[in-house]
Specification:
alpha+beta, Butyryl-CoA Dehydrogenase, subunit A, domain 3, 11 strands, two-stranded antiparallel sheet
């Protein structure tokens, strides 16, 4: 059976020492209650819930899966009871406004909470996870009536939410959406169409499910310019929230999937279901981006969760499994063989898992502060500035961390050897569950096009320059000329990081120039460019963690081994992971003709 212990020490290292959350919270009077004592209590209680309630349901939920019978979906044994404990504990309301029944704590704490629950049981965590996106969308674009009816109950957790975009004929290309919205003349609309791949689209955890649905009004412009957004409840409710008749939203089936089997992925049929418009007409896709960005950061978190769970169990196994002797001589002469952790190849896989988990966590927690800034922005200028920062890093987080999370999960299976391929150990489940993260909420290729095409080339590198300026200031402050007392130790990180930043900027310019004469350059280079960018971004955070560890070791601190391990992990990252950018720089600059010159009919001679 899999085990999981919430990495409280690492979480507190990031929020207290690296990113200084408490200084950050002091900027906003709304977050004054987020004191160290309260946050510590939240971390401890969430750890208990995740470890003791959710983890035991992870493998059993996968084995049982969701069941579908005549339009009714039933979640695995224990899921409904766990959800009730989640509601009773107030976890659904933690990062939401007091005005609508929330606790008013920072969104950043919500992400920390989501990491623990998601690592313990990602399939279960998807049910409340989709609700957060629905809450953010209604809070940002909904009117007062919609907030009072829907937002309050979503925050309470008595209702859950979904995102309904994909249809049988279109996934990423939402310009092909065919679902119709016919006005009734009373401010409501009849929604008709079919949506597929709807995560948490139907279940038995709550009495009502609130669907956020893309649809077209009559005579709407073609393509994405003619899409509107609607709130469509599964069960109709009056202004006081009293449930009434079913709303002609039916579940046609649930998917038989490779992984996340305990999360119901539904086909939903809307047959003149009554909904209300949210946001302006024909601006639905713009409004839906609020939900999509929430979901993309949540999906990026899945990469960290998969890596962490795989790493923790791989480490336990590698310390216990005996096989062969160390190449440098017996390390445990009293045993029949040495544990496999003595072997360099196993160490390489374990260290790769470790730096992915901890580096990815740092990337997420950095972004969490930006989410706080957006939620507390007092002016449109402040909101847009924070949103630009978020928009730049989101595709990197989503694609890079999910790709690395899948890599880490596969390392875990490899470390377990044959046992990793057997279901009872749980490692193959992590591999299966992790794989979807690179696909939903926009594939790696889609995120890469967004990063290179929209966020860099279309802005003439502004978003990239803003981020790299921040990194270069860090490099200057910790360089040999800065006067930093740890400057000599830090030089092993600062020099390659600064060089990587300069190369990143240069390659961006070169790709932009090449794309002017051949637009296929963008599609050809984009995925390699995104992964290249991800390794540099993670290097920045490993350098920050190393710098913080040096500062802590210079004082009188307990658990000095924790900080020494951080520095050694940073060394591994810079020696073994960051060099991957060298091969990526070659492939992303390669001429796209090698991809496009072969006629599709000649690809196979079968």
């Amino acid at each position: 059976m899999l085990s999981y212990k919430a990495p409280i020490a690492d979480i507190k290292f990031l929020i207290e020492d690296v990113f200084k959350y408490y200084d950050h919270y002091k900027k906003y009077e709304e977050f004054e209650e987020a004191s160290p004592d309260l946050v510590d209590a939240i971390l401890q209680e969430c750890a208990k819930f995740s470890e003791n309630v959710l983890l035991p349901l992870y493998q059993s939920g996968d084995k049982e899966g969701c069941t579908f019978d005549n339009g009714k979906v039933t979640t695995p044994k224990g899921f409904k009871e766990a959800y009730q404990q989640y509601i009773d504990g107030g976890w659904s309301s933690l990062p939401h406004s007091i005005e609508h029944g929330g606790q008013g704590l920072p969104p950043s704490l919500g992400l920390v909470q989501s990491e623990m629950t998601g690592t313990a049981n990602w399939s279960w965590a998807m049910y409340p996870g989709l609700s957060h996106g629905a809450m953010n969308t209604i809070n940002t674009h909904g009117n007062d009536k919609q907030k009072e009816l829907y937002l309050t109950r979503l925050i309470q957790g008595t209702w859950t939410g979904t995102m309904c975009l994909t249809e049988p004929q279109c996934g990423t290309d939402l310009g092909q959406v065919k679902t119709k919205a016919e006005p009734n003349g009373d401010g409501t609309y009849n929604i008709t169409g079919t949506k597929i791949f709807i995560s948490a689209g139907d279940h038995d955890l709550t009495d009502n499910i609130i669907h956020i649905v893309l649809a077209r009004l009559p005579d709407a412009p073609k393509g994405t310019r003619g899409i509107s957004l609607f709130i469509v409840p599964k069960i109709k409710a009056d202004a006081e929230g009293t449930l009434g008749d079913a709303n002609n939203v039916t579940c046609g089936s649930i998917e038989d999937k490779m992984g996340i089997k305990a999360s119901a992925t539904a086909v939903l049929n809307f047959d003149n279901a009554v909904g209300t418009l949210i946001g302006p007409e024909n601006k639905g896709l713009e409004c839906m981006f609020t939900f999509m960005n929430t979901a993309r950061i949540g999906t990026a978190l899945q990469g960290v969760c998969s890596s962490e769970l795989a790493f923790q169990n791989s480490l336990i196994y590698a310390k216990e499994r005996l096989s062969m002797r160390s190449l440098t001589g017996k390390k445990f002469p009293d045993q029949v063989a040495d544990p496999i952790i003595v072997h360099p190849d196993v160490r390489k896989m374990l260290m790769t898992q470790k730096v992915i988990s901890e580096g990815g966590r740092a990337m997420i927690y950095y972004t969490a502060k930006i989410l706080d800034d957006i939620s507390m922005a007092k002016t449109e200028e402040q909101r847009l500035a924070a949103d630009d920062r978020l928009g730049f890093i989101t595709p990197i987080l989503k694609a890079f961390l999910t790709e690395l999370g899948s890599e880490s999960a596969n390392h875990g299976l490899q470390i377990f050897g044959g046992h990793g391929y057997i279901k009872e150990w749980g490692m193959e489940q992590i591999v299966r569950d992790a794989r979807i993260a690179t696909l939903y909420e926009g594939t790696t290729g889609i995120q890469a096009l967004d990063l290179l095409g929209r966020k860099i080339l279309m802005t003439r590198g502004k978003s990239l320059n803003d981020f790299t300026k921040e990194v270069l200031i860090f490099c200057k402050d910790n360089s040999l000329i800065s006067g930093n007392p740890h400057k000599r130790q830090m030089n092993r990180f600062i020099w390659p990081l600064g060089k990587a930043i300069a190369n990143w900027q240069q390659y961006s310019v070169r790709l932009g120039l090449k794309a002017k004469s051949n637009r296929d350059v963008v599609g050809s280079a984009s995925v390699d460019f995104l992964m290249y960018s991800g390794y540099i971004v993670m290097a920045y955070f490993w350098a920050q963690m190393a710098q913080t560890a040096y500062e802590k070791l210079a004082g009188d601190v307990e658990n000095r081994d924790f900080y020494r391990a951080k520095i050694k992990s940073a060394e591994f990252y810079f020696e073994r992971m960051l060099p991957r950018t060298k091969s990526l720089s070659k492939t992303m600059m390669a001429d796209p003709k090698t991809l496009m010159q072969l006629d599709p009919e000649l690809m196979s001679f079968l």
